[in-house]
Design a protein that fits this description.
Elements lengths: L1 H4 L2 E10 L2 E6 L4 E4 L11 H15 L7 E7 L4 E3 L3 E3 L2 E3 L7
Antiparallel strand pairs: 1-2, 1-4, 2-3, 4-5, 6-7
Length: 98
Amino acid sequence: MADMMDPMRYVIVSSFLPNFSLFYCPSDGSFVMNEIPDTVLFKRKGEALAVARALERRQRKRATGLQVIQVKKTKRTVRIIEEVRVDGRTWKPKLKRK
């Protein structure tokens, strides 16, 4: 029950710039740009890490830089909690406004 009530979720992100981030959608195997729909959320970090490792192995060296970050799901939206780290720089990805 506590797991269902916890608003913290995890997403797999490939972020190039603060304004350009791709979030992996496991339901159809594609990446979504600059938005986080409910279909990209993982409840457990271990599951998200396992999927990210499998993606990196499948894509070989082309899909490097996949990261798992923590987000908080609210009633209307998703807030990004953790920052993305790329080449020594850190930022929170910006999402598309609805």
